[in-house]
Known about the structure:
Layout: H1 2-15, H2 19-32, H3 37-49, H4 53-70
Helix pairs in contact: 1-2, 1-3, 2-3, 3-4
Amino acid sequence: xxxxxxxxxxxxxxxxxxxxxxxxxxxxxxxxxxxxxxxxxxxxxxxxxxxxxxxxxxxxxxxxxxxxxxx
Length: 71
């Protein structure tokens, strides 16, 4: 679906070193499927590459919380 396409686009941008574009794609993925821990984890990685440490930590914490809820 749309959320998966956003994540795939973000991965492509990350591989090209386009971290701001990756973050935007991942943000759209999070908005489309906020319960997917992968979207939050990937967004965390993009924020880290952009030096946005607080946002990165917040997204990583949300990914962890969602992942634990699925187990």
